[in-house]
């Protein structure tokens, strides 16, 4: 695995870049509410796969970047991704032995919490959502989780990220 | 321990951004660093647009050219009168001892991103500090006022739409000059006119234009059309809803307006 190590950071960074682009991609109005939380999903995967590499500090950096990109209150996504990372770090041993469907269930709850925290900070700034539609990404994220999981696992195995 | 540290750090960030407004310059710097990602995210839609403009049949192009020529002729015909009307207006204003209206210069900008969060009504534009864009600059499209610039980095800027829940602007009814405040509601199709007393002369179908009172937007740009007036005797104020004139979710090209310094942009 010695020659795999230099690859590690490169591949992780690339997957997060793709997640950022997906998170910003313009969508039609009716799909906007249901956009899966790509960055959160990618973060959850890497925390489960490599908890010694990807953790709290990564979540913090990703969150601040996402805030900048989205034009959100600085710290909004940082806080929500931080909560997500902490929860995933405590759960990763269980999540690894779960089936994909069980994992999707956990992802549903995790992304839901992520959305609640986001909404909480947004309300501090006076721009909260007026309906419960902001929880829709939890469902869509759970639905795309199997795809994300398999794609990222293939990536990890192919480039031998460790 | 690390978690505690991280939480404190994030809490500090949120407070600094929301309550102290200390992070403006850091933010625009980071925004500049993040531009490649914006650029990549806008690639698919730009490719689509490229295909749309480059893969037309010759007949289609000829037809479109013909149509545009006709449209141009009509517009030119209309603008002939414009210059004499403007001269008239200036003369009359001079008679009334009021200041002359400056003609506004505009800069065409292209939309390269919209806020991924449906609650935030923000646009990312492909013009920035290099092009003279400044914070607070009004943004219009062909039909009316869209919003204002809130963040500028070197090659990009971010604009807040008038329908964002945190945005409000001074307007007046075009018919009789009644002043009011139009607030965004967070939904793209509605503005709410707040604190209109029940006896105010405002009707459905009235055009609301910018009043220029806030000192931020120039006078006379159409903002919205009143779509609903509800006068409930039990309430102190009438409930007035208006529909924005600008195509907030459809415009791909927008105009940035330079008002205060006409010589600035040429």
Describe this protein's structure.
The complex is a heterodimer of chains A (162) and B (266). Chain A is an all-alpha fold. Chain A has one domain. Chain A is built from seven helices and no strands. In chain A, α3 (38-49) packs across α7 (136-158) and α5 (76-97) packs antiparallel against α6. The longest helix of chain A has 25 residues, at 100-124. Chain A is globular. The mean pLDDT of chain A is 87. With 266 residues, chain B is α+β, with helices and mostly antiparallel strands. Chain B folds into two domains: 1-32; 102-261, Beta Barrel (Thrombin, subunit H). A six-stranded antiparallel β-barrel of chain B has the order 1-2-5-4-3-12. Chain B has a six-stranded antiparallel β-barrel with strand order 6-7-8-11-10-9. The radius of gyration of chain B is 22 Å and the shape is globular. The chains are: A mainly alpha (162), B alpha+beta (266). Chains A and B meet through α1, α4, α5 and α6 of A and α1, α2 and α3 of B.
Give me the number of helical elements of chain B: 4
Give the second-level CATH assignment, the architecture of the largest domain in chain B.
Beta Barrel
Number of domains of chain A: 1
Order of helices and strands of chain A: HHHHHHH
Share of residues in strands of chain B: 25-35%
The tally of structural domains of chain B comes to 2
Low-confidence stretches of chain B: 261-266
